[in-house]
Amino acid sequence: MQTDSLQHWVDQQMIRGKYIFTKEDVLAQGLSQTENSLKTSLSRLVKKGIIISPWQNFYVTVPTEYRLRGEVPPSFYIDHLMKYLGRDYYVSLLSAAALNGSGHQRTMVFQVTVNGTPIRSGIKNGIRLDFTLRNSLPMAYVKQVKTQMGFMNVSSPDLTALDLVLNEEKVGGLSRVAEVLIELAENMNFDESNTELIDFFNAPVIQRLGYLLDFIEEHKLADRLLMLAQKREKLFRKIRLKQSKPHTEDMTINGRWKVIINQEIETDEI
């Protein structure tokens, strides 16, 4: 197979606004005689910076505006990739926070929550794709955000806050979570429409989030979260604020949330 013929097809696809393709798409065009020749031609286009391959047999034509950078943001292709893999998903944690009003939380990691079997996280074209696994995704609390290629699923501010507490070690710890919540709080609600969202999280996650909301002085949000927890009959028992750290008998216990304060929360905002 001639690389020029594949590049011509890729260019024609791009002109038509089609930037995503798979190895199967190329084979269906009859552009290759053998698997080896196709693999060689695709590799050459990757080396030339014309396409990238964020996943095996999945390719993205690099738009002109990204050619000099040599990388394409995952938001450009994540929805297509998840459909290719047959997974439900939503953009989550710090990546979702950045899209929900927490503008200072930009990182070189793109975080996605998926269902099904585990997907290995890794660096794809200079950006780390970090996958978090959940057996059941609360898709009713996921919104669609417009992208250059259509839409992608993004967790709502309330779901993002709960996920941040649940996965605090993946985002830099509880102090980092508190800093994100300060910016995210403006768009959070925890009103009656979020009643069933509470069912996707165990009581300790809700207790820790409630404590952090009170800590950053978002008391109305904390009140509403407590109301939802009581409505869903969440049973609060004494828990450690930082699960992985021990506690001693002389540590303060927050009465409202039954949280043992075994870690000091530090933020730049308070």
What brief labels describe this structure?
270 residues; alpha+beta; four-stranded mixed sheet; three-stranded antiparallel sheet; 18% strand
Lay out the secondary structure.
Blueprint: H1 3-15, E1 20-22, H2 23-28, H3 35-47, E2 51-55, E3 58-61, H4 78-85, E4 89-91, H5 93-99, E5 109-114, E6 122-124, E7 127-133, E8 142-147, E9 150-155, H6 157-166, H7 174-184, H8 203-215, H9 219-231, E10 239-240, E11 253-254, E12 259-260
Parallel strand pairs: 5-7, 10-12
Antiparallel strand pairs: 1-3, 2-3, 4-5, 6-7, 8-9, 11-12
Summarize model confidence as the mean pLDDT.
Answer: 92
Largest sheet: 4 strands, mixed
Distance between the termini: 62 Å
β-strand amount: 15-25%
**Shape, per Cα inertia axes:** elongated
Structural class: alpha+beta
Count every beta strand, where a strand is a DSSP E run of 2 or more residues: 12
Level of helix content?
25-40%
| Structure annotation, total helices | 9
Secondary-structure element order, as H and E?
Answer: HEHHEEHEHEEEEEHHHHEEE
Strand order of the largest sheet: 4-5-7-6
